[in-house]
Amino acid sequence: MQAHGVSSLLVEGDPPGIFTDRDLRRWVAEGRPLEAPVAQAASFPLLALPRTTPLLEAVAFMVERGIHHLPLLEGGKVVGMVTHTDLVRQEAQLPLLLLRRIEGLVLEGYAKEVAGLVQSLLEAGVGALEIGRLVAGLNDALVRRLLAEAERTLGPPPTPYAFLVLGSEGRREQALLTDQDNALLYAEEGHEPYFEALAERVVGGLLAAGFPPCPGGYMATRLRMSLEGFRKAMRGWIEAPEPEALLKAQTFLDLRQVGGELDLRPLEAELLAQAQKGVFLHHLARAALAFPPPPTPLGRLPSSLEPKRHGLFPIVLLARFYAVYTGSPERHTLDRLQAASRKGALSLEMAELLGEGFSLFFRLRLWAELLGQGALSPKALSPLERRRALEAFRAVRTAQGHLRLRFGLR
Q1: Which of 9, 184, 201, 345 could hold 340 in an S-S bridge, CB 3.0 to 4.6 Å?
Q2: Contact (Cβ atoms closer than 8 angstroms) between residue 322 and residue 328
């Protein structure tokens, strides 16, 4: 590596791997023997992307996985390598510099830098949903770094656990730092003091980074329980979906694991199957009708347009309903709409119209939040945006009408 001026080596094997300068530093710091085979210190499997991958997508991939070297493939063979240093020379430097700060646990100013990143990418014409994915990857990296630091202080976890993000963060649809939504599950009871301390450290770190506390208490310091305890709680929320229980159940339908070694795939499949039964699906359908679009007399938008309440909420709720209705494990709203279309629950045209509306309102929401506003004047929108917003409202009304007829709801 020194002779050739490179910071990584590909390691042959099945699967292949990579040996980087970070692997070397970690190996030496742990006092491991330098005579050992390089495969013992390498990282497996090799994470790579096609050489035609757009730059920002490659950056998001690296941020999500916390890697600094990305092999590029053509015809299944590695033809090049993109490194953190290469990308810092390009437009991608901001998210990667933020990742460096996260790795050093530099929390002060994180929220301000994320806002600056979002604004610069929006002004550069980057798609809002791509920005949301990138920022979600940075937030995930921050959570994993806080978990690693907590484990170093508290010692290894006494039983496997899973740190979850919920709501918009679980769907990768949150760009600016809004209220925390997270939870902590662990495999076996009897270890509550350890996980209480772990949750406090992570939630405290997120507070220091600029994530406000959740007013409803949806944070791991309160939403912390054993796997079996969570199963019982979720069954209760689904079988007796009173307003508060319905809210909790819906929130956990968007869960995404960002840390810990506990395998939640069986649990997720179980929860999805339970949610399809009985009265819960009926209540989920009713919830999808709770946010009708605002009136648009004579094709005019309301004088005060709230992108989140008027546009995002109804589409998110419709997509969540259809994910449960069709048994789809998808989380992101666009993925849920596409899955519903593939399974025949939504027409392809309706899924596309709702998806286009979601993309528009997500971008408008980012601009509104950067301006410190909850609403925008229609005058702030371009003629094309106004027309697309009206089309989205019509699509939502139609989709909600079909759902109302299908379930006999008023």
Answers
A1: 345
A2: yes
Residue 150 lies in a domain: yes
The total number of structural domains in the chain stands at 2
From 271, 300, 331, the end of a domain falls on: 271
Q: Are residues 95 and 158 in the same domain?
A: yes
Mind listing the pLDDT tens digit for each residue in 18-47?
Answer: 999 889 988 998 899 999 999 999 999 899
| Tokens describing residue 104 | 């050093």
Cis before 45? omega within 30:
yes
Query: What's CA 114's distance to the chain center, in Å?
Result: 15
115 lies in which domain range?
91-271
C-alpha atoms less than 13 angstroms from C-alpha of 293 in its C-beta half-sphere: 27
Return d(Cα 59, Cα 141) in angstroms, integer.
13
Q: Quick: pLDDT tens for 195-233.
A: 999 999 999 999 999 999 988 888 999 999 999 999 999
Q: What are phi and psi of 155, to 5 degrees?
A: 100, 170
Q: Is residue 123 domain-shared with residue 262, that is, in the same domain?
A: yes
Residue given tokens 């772990």 in the structure block = 198
Is 72 inside a domain boundary?
no
